[in-house]
């Protein structure tokens, strides 16, 4: 069994904040007047919380885990500007949100998003192995609301996997780590190989994808690395052809993969592959890009100039990065929903013709548009102050921030009633 999905860039982001002054009567009135409280039997089934989930939630409420307990961060003043800069980087596209798997390593000094709140994994205080063999231990995590906790690394990873994202480094940061000899560990101070592979799979879904290549890094001989390809999901359970090998000395292998992903993320393919035992895996390091472009990218990685280039998917070429005008809006303290829409609807919204935006409510979108209140186990609409609209997924795209006046629900649709257009930023092709 195999399915193919082109990896889309993720920009969904909404900041977390706390109400200090709350009108209880108004909150209760909003809850009981919510359209989600008056739906048909069929629609009610969509919002049911399974009994076993309620049990888990009750246990969690009755016996809270120590690692989830937070306390005020006494030196938060030095972290606050760092969070503000990351927010700005996300708005301008210098950083992206990225889904991670349960085996992804979380790194000290990196930022993550959990349930809409940004967290900095400041340091890993103790290091040990968990029962599944993955790194674990107490951490010091700083949250953007001014609190901190000593949550276990494995617990943080689980939270990011199930209800959050990793926040990528900027290309400048990745490049600095990549070429900084002080950041390279002793085991990385070896000659390695960047390799480019072509799949020899007989599966027509794979064979019919033109210019499909796997790009990776190995400290062993590439021939040895791919010798068992037909039994490894990362190679799509099929033999591979070695197309190119680049010999590298003292290069940071982990940061190499970050650079390649950031440059080629718009043409990254993810394959779901079953291994010999029938267990499903995800192969992620495959890209649909001409071979000569791969060669150019690798050369620019090695000479340190890759940070000045981006891959143009439509033109199939590298182009110099043009610094986009940053957003001038201060959205701190606001809940902002990010949506991708078509060009025609975008123009109708910014011109004031279209005053409502609809989103279907189904199992795959429940957590984005609704939430479960652990106090009563019921599901409610998420309320947003504004929506940031993007046209498509390319880096230089039109965007707009529009006020949300109200949010309603009826017949399986969430309706956002739009107000004032707060900001419009045009992409390069519209300037």
Short description:
By secondary structure, the chain is of the alpha+beta class. The chain has helices at 24-33, 41-47, 51-62, 80-92, 153-163, 171-179, 204-207, 222-225, 253-264, 291-303, 343-350, 366-369; strands at 2-6, 71-72, 97-98, 111-114, 117-124, 128-129, 135-136, 139-143, 147-149, 164-167, 191-199, 212-218, 240-249, 268-274, 280-288, 309-312, 317-320, 336-341, 356-360, 370-373, 378-381, 386-391, 399-410, 413-425.
How would you describe the overall organization of this protein?
This protein has 431 residues and is α+β, with helices and mostly antiparallel strands. It has three domains: 15-48 and 326-430, Archaeosine Trna-guanine Transglycosylase, Chain: A, domain 4, CATH 2.30.130.30; 66-168, no CATH class; 187-320, no CATH class. 25% of the residues lie in helices and 32% in strands. The chain contains twelve helices and 24 strands. A seven-stranded antiparallel sheet has the order 2-9-8-5-4-10-3. Strands 1-14-15-12-11-13 form a six-stranded antiparallel sheet. Strands 18-22-23-24-19 form a five-stranded mixed sheet. A hairpin with a 5-residue loop joins strand 6 and strand 7 (135-136). Helix 6 (171-179) runs antiparallel to helix 9.
């Amino acid at each position: 069994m195999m399915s193919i999905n082109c990896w889309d860039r993720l920009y969904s982001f909404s900041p977390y904040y706390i109400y200090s002054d709350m009108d209880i009567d108004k909150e209760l009135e909003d809850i009981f007047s919510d359209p989600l409280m008056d739906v048909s039997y069929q629609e009610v089934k969509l919002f049911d919380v399974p009994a076993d989930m309620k049990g888990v939630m009750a246990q969690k409420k009755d016996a809270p885990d120590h690692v989830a307990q937070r306390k005020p961060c006494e030196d938060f003043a030095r972290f606050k500007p760092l969070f503000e800069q990351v927010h700005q980087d996300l708005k301008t596209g210098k950083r992206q949100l990225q889904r991670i798997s349960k085996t992804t390593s979380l790194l000290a000094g990196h930022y993550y998003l959990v349930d809409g709140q940004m967290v900095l994994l400041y340091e890993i205080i103790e290091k040990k192995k968990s029962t599944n063999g993955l790194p674990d231990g107490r951490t010091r995590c700083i949250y953007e609301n001014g609190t901190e906790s000593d949550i276990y690394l494995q617990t943080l990873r689980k939270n990011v996997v199930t209800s959050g994202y990793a926040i990528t480094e900027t290309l400048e940061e990745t490049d600095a780590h990549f070429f900084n000899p002080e950041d390279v560990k002793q085991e990385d101070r070896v000659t390695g190989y960047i390799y480019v592979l072509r799949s020899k799979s007989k599966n027509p879904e794979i064979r019919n994808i033109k210019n499909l290549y796997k790009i990776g890094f190995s400290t062993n001989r590439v021939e040895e690395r791919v010798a068992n390809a037909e039994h490894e999901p990362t190679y799509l359970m099929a033999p591979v052809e070695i197309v190119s090998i680049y010999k590298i000395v003292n290069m940071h292998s982990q940061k190499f993969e970050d650079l390649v992903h950031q440059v080629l993320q718009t043409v990254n393919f993810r394959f779901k592959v079953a291994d010999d035992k029938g267990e499903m895996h995800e192969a992620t390091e495959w890209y649909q890009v001409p071979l000569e472009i791969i060669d150019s990218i690798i050369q620019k990685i090695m000479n340190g100039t890759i940070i000045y280039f981006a891959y143009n998917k439509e033109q199939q070429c590298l182009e110099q990065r043009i610094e986009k005008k940053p957003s001038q809006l201060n959205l701190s303290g606001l809940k902002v929903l990010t949506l991708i829409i078509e060009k025609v609807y975008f123009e109708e919204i910014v011109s004031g013709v279209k005053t409502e935006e609809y989103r279907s409510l189904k199992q795959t979108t429940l957590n984005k548009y609704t939430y479960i209140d652990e106090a009563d186990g019921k599901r409610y609409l998420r309320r947003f102050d504004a929506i940031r609209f993007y046209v498509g997924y390319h880096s230089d795209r039109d965007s707009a921030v529009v006020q949300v006046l109200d949010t309603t629900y009826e017949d399986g649709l969430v309706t956002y009633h739009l107000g004032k257009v707060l900001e419009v930023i045009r992409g390069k092709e519209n300037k």
